[in-house]
């Protein structure tokens, strides 16, 4: 049985058939072969680092946090994680190994399904932002409040949005990504039905806050869910979720044209309009509940559920029709057996230590143009948090 997309009373499949030996790492599906070299052949020359080059990869070793090669031997895997430097703890090494495993699996069917399901969550956010703004005149007429006072309904909605964004964002680190991912739109749809039957302006305002609390979690939870399943080289796809934002506005505008025009009585049209928005939100929630989702392996690894994290990576490989070399033995051999919660510092501190370790004349040469003028400096500083978040 499944409740909110979670398996209740059912054993979790282990996806053992999705495991392959580390010595048989395949080239990513979306990367073409180069120079007709066999992808199973591991370079044996003395100059080789035991890795399979990706298409377009240069011969020198990359200093980026993610390698330009896929390791094909355990020794190569160790070499890759050693690039992090001596500042890396065992827990951070395990996260890096998991990044390598997800990148090896590549962008596949499961991630594209997530793209659609996360995208409709982003569309739902704008769906309700526009919907609340459009019903304000009808609320003013129906509940006999002034045009100035009716704006407090928007205030309540934005309070709910703020609490939802903060609450679901932090809560997803406690209850998990999947439960929050499956719950936000369900909560929004339930309170939307209550809003359509509100008998007073006060009741409508309070319910709007609850609607905001539900839909407010869509952006942080959905974005995190999608990002944590993306291969490192495909993380820019997170910005593609923005194409769903105007879709929500278009749908709301079309429904408003139908229900908030002259076709219906003003006291009833806005209720039909909210029913429609609630129905669409419920349909979105149902699509998520029917989707056999996987809990984020990075979240599971962060709460010391290493076995389940490895199972999630195997599940990802299975759903993408490929295999993964990741096992608990590999994680323990490179990162140790100590619990991650005992040694991993905050991600901010990890980034600071990494930046200090890698800072040098070459870095200064690359970064200095961003601070060439006062305006460029202001723009760089203002964009830095978003850039760091995308690379986290």
TrEMBL record:
Subcellular localization: Membrane
Metal-binding among keywords: no
Gene3D superfamilies in the record: MFS general substrate transporter like domains
Region annotation (Disordered) ranges: 1-68
Main location: membrane
Keywords associated with the record: Membrane, Transmembrane, Transmembrane helix, Transport
Recorded GO MF terms: transmembrane transporter activity
Protein name, per record: Major facilitator superfamily (MFS) profile domain-containing protein
Start and end residues of each Major facilitator superfamily (MFS) profile domain: 114-392
Basic and acidic residues compositional bias, start-end: 9-37
UniProt cross-references to SUPFAM superfamilies, sorted A to Z: MFS general substrate transporter
Transmembrane segments: 112-129, 149-170, 179-198, 204-230, 237-260, 272-291
GO CC entries: membrane
Membrane topology note: Multi-pass membrane protein
